[in-house]
Design brief:
This protein is α/β, with parallel strands linked by helices. The protein has a single domain (about 25-125), classed as Carboxypeptidase-like, regulatory domain (Immunoglobulin-like). It contains 2 helices and 8 strands; from the N terminus they run αββββββββα. The strands form 2 sheets. Strands 3-2-5-6-8 form a 5-stranded mixed β-sheet. Strands 4-1-7 form a 3-stranded mixed β-sheet, with no helix packed on it. A hairpin with a 5-residue loop joins strand 5 (about 75-80) and strand 6 (about 85-95).
Protein backbone atom coordinates (compact mmCIF):
# COMPACT_ATOMS: atom_id res chain seq x y z
CA UNK A 1 0.00 0.00 0.00
CA UNK A 2 1.19 3.45 -0.77
CA UNK A 3 1.69 6.05 1.97
CA UNK A 4 -0.95 8.32 0.35
CA UNK A 5 -3.53 5.51 0.37
CA UNK A 6 -2.80 4.73 4.05
CA UNK A 7 -3.08 8.40 5.01
CA UNK A 8 -6.38 8.71 3.13
CA UNK A 9 -7.73 5.53 4.75
CA UNK A 10 -6.80 6.75 8.25
CA UNK A 11 -8.38 10.14 7.56
CA UNK A 12 -11.57 8.51 6.33
CA UNK A 13 -11.79 6.32 9.45
CA UNK A 14 -11.33 9.36 11.68
CA UNK A 15 -14.08 11.26 9.84
CA UNK A 16 -16.48 8.34 10.20
CA UNK A 17 -15.72 8.12 13.94
CA UNK A 18 -16.26 11.85 14.46
CA UNK A 19 -19.46 11.74 12.43
CA UNK A 20 -20.81 8.85 14.52
CA UNK A 21 -20.07 10.74 17.73
CA UNK A 22 -21.74 13.93 16.52
CA UNK A 23 -25.10 12.28 15.92
CA UNK A 24 -25.36 10.66 19.33
CA UNK A 25 -26.11 13.89 21.20
CA UNK A 26 -29.14 16.04 21.81
CA UNK A 27 -29.99 19.21 23.71
CA UNK A 28 -32.56 20.50 26.17
CA UNK A 29 -33.75 24.09 26.07
CA UNK A 30 -36.59 26.12 27.49
CA UNK A 31 -37.68 29.15 29.48
CA UNK A 32 -37.89 29.53 33.25
CA UNK A 33 -40.76 31.65 34.52
CA UNK A 34 -42.69 32.23 37.71
CA UNK A 35 -46.34 31.34 38.35
CA UNK A 36 -47.48 34.74 36.98
CA UNK A 37 -45.67 34.16 33.68
CA UNK A 38 -42.76 36.53 34.30
CA UNK A 39 -39.34 35.24 33.24
CA UNK A 40 -36.85 34.21 35.92
CA UNK A 41 -33.27 35.20 35.03
CA UNK A 42 -30.22 33.63 36.71
CA UNK A 43 -32.04 30.44 37.74
CA UNK A 44 -29.72 27.41 38.00
CA UNK A 45 -30.63 24.57 35.65
CA UNK A 46 -28.98 21.20 36.30
CA UNK A 47 -29.47 18.05 34.24
CA UNK A 48 -28.23 14.68 35.43
CA UNK A 49 -28.04 11.65 33.17
CA UNK A 50 -29.56 9.08 35.51
CA UNK A 51 -27.80 6.10 33.90
CA UNK A 52 -24.26 7.51 34.29
CA UNK A 53 -24.43 10.36 36.81
CA UNK A 54 -23.15 12.88 34.23
CA UNK A 55 -24.18 16.37 35.39
CA UNK A 56 -24.34 19.60 33.40
CA UNK A 57 -25.33 23.01 34.76
CA UNK A 58 -26.24 26.35 33.21
CA UNK A 59 -28.11 29.51 34.20
CA UNK A 60 -31.15 31.09 32.61
CA UNK A 61 -30.48 34.30 30.72
CA UNK A 62 -32.03 37.73 31.18
CA UNK A 63 -35.00 36.52 29.10
CA UNK A 64 -35.38 33.37 31.23
CA UNK A 65 -34.15 31.08 28.44
CA UNK A 66 -31.59 28.30 28.78
CA UNK A 67 -29.89 25.76 26.51
CA UNK A 68 -27.93 22.65 27.47
CA UNK A 69 -26.33 21.48 24.19
CA UNK A 70 -24.34 18.35 23.31
CA UNK A 71 -25.94 16.03 25.86
CA UNK A 72 -25.35 12.31 25.31
CA UNK A 73 -28.57 10.42 24.59
CA UNK A 74 -30.22 8.64 27.51
CA UNK A 75 -32.45 9.26 30.54
CA UNK A 76 -32.21 12.58 32.41
CA UNK A 77 -33.46 14.41 35.48
CA UNK A 78 -33.77 18.21 35.30
CA UNK A 79 -33.69 20.45 38.37
CA UNK A 80 -34.23 24.22 38.41
CA UNK A 81 -33.45 26.33 41.48
CA UNK A 82 -33.52 30.02 42.31
CA UNK A 83 -33.43 31.69 45.70
CA UNK A 84 -36.93 32.61 46.86
CA UNK A 85 -38.56 29.83 44.81
CA UNK A 86 -39.32 26.16 45.39
CA UNK A 87 -37.02 23.88 43.40
CA UNK A 88 -38.64 22.30 40.33
CA UNK A 89 -37.62 18.76 39.42
CA UNK A 90 -38.59 16.83 36.31
CA UNK A 91 -37.52 13.23 35.84
CA UNK A 92 -38.22 10.66 33.17
CA UNK A 93 -36.78 12.79 30.35
CA UNK A 94 -35.33 10.52 27.68
CA UNK A 95 -33.11 12.11 25.04
CA UNK A 96 -32.84 10.31 21.73
CA UNK A 97 -30.70 11.02 18.66
CA UNK A 98 -31.78 14.23 16.94
CA UNK A 99 -34.43 15.12 19.54
CA UNK A 100 -34.20 18.53 21.11
CA UNK A 101 -37.01 18.82 23.65
CA UNK A 102 -38.13 22.21 24.88
CA UNK A 103 -38.85 22.00 28.60
CA UNK A 104 -40.34 25.17 30.01
CA UNK A 105 -40.28 25.36 33.80
CA UNK A 106 -42.58 27.30 36.11
CA UNK A 107 -41.15 28.09 39.54
CA UNK A 108 -43.45 28.69 42.49
CA UNK A 109 -42.63 31.20 45.21
CA UNK A 110 -41.50 29.30 48.29
CA UNK A 111 -38.51 28.20 50.24
CA UNK A 112 -35.51 26.57 48.60
CA UNK A 113 -36.06 23.41 50.69
CA UNK A 114 -39.38 22.76 48.91
CA UNK A 115 -39.47 20.87 45.62
CA UNK A 116 -42.07 20.59 42.90
CA UNK A 117 -41.58 17.20 41.22
CA UNK A 118 -42.88 16.43 37.73
CA UNK A 119 -42.70 12.88 36.36
CA UNK A 120 -42.22 12.82 32.61
CA UNK A 121 -42.36 9.94 30.20
CA UNK A 122 -40.60 9.34 26.89
CA UNK A 123 -43.81 10.45 25.18
CA UNK A 124 -43.33 13.96 26.53
CA UNK A 125 -39.99 14.24 24.76
CA UNK A 126 -41.52 14.04 21.31
CA UNK A 127 -44.28 16.31 20.04
CA UNK A 128 -47.45 14.76 18.67
CA UNK A 129 -50.85 16.18 17.79
CA UNK A 130 -53.37 16.29 20.60
CA UNK A 131 -56.16 13.78 20.32
CA UNK A 132 -59.63 14.56 21.69
CA UNK A 133 -60.68 12.63 24.78
CA UNK A 134 -63.26 9.95 24.10
Amino acid sequence: MSAVFKTTLVGLCLCIGVSAQAVSTSQISGVVQDSTGLVVPAATITVTQTATGLTRTTASGADGSYVLPNLPVGPYRLQVTKEGFSAAVQSGIVLQVDTNPVINVTLKVGSVSEQVVVEASAGMVERSPCLPKS
